[in-house]
Structure prediction request, 232 residues.
Amino acid sequence: MNKLGFMEPNFFKVTHSYPSSIISCIHNAPPHGAAEVSRITSLVNESTTSTRVLKDVHLSTQLLDGFLDLAEDNTSKDLETCGVLGAFLKEGTYYVTTLIIPKQDSTSSTCQAFNEEEIFAIQNEQSLFPVGWIHTHPSQSCFMSSVDLHTQYSYQVMVPEAVAIVMAPTDTSRSYGYFRLSDPDGMKIVRECQETGFHTHSEPLNGASIYEDCSNIYLNPNLRLEIFDLRH
Prediction:
């Protein structure tokens, strides 16, 4: 067991079609049979205004701590870190089995991935759906900035179930959140917004929020998590 409370990962090289090899690590599922799957309810805003019926999304219980461990160096320097979630679809449920940490440029309030063809190559080779993303707010609270909303739109317009996970380790009131744009209200506002950078958005006329907590997220200790860190 490591300091995060789960099994030490096994590291190995994975060769792809682009020049550099990738460091990949596997976190194995708990060895003692199937464990209970838990729905995320404590942080969910049950008064959601979204009308779309969504498929359930299962996340590995090792995802959040594993990501924070990989982001630790950046977090200590007040730099954001981002990652992409890859899932397979089985019997109407998405199972997130892959976390991809792309090459990225970071500041204390932004994180921009580059060489995105490396992300697409892994997704294509493993037939994964891009069901969302995860990023840190190293010194800010747990919320979705205007830039985050536009990033989330790019995922959610492809996969309606896409989730934005925000990790805010210094926020003592809420250290993480599972968010999505409200649909159709928030999706419409961001789709029609032509601004870039940090800016304000108008709120939906019906009084709804532009984004909301996800209500379809489950933590599944039986999932095997594979992490590709492309930064090295």
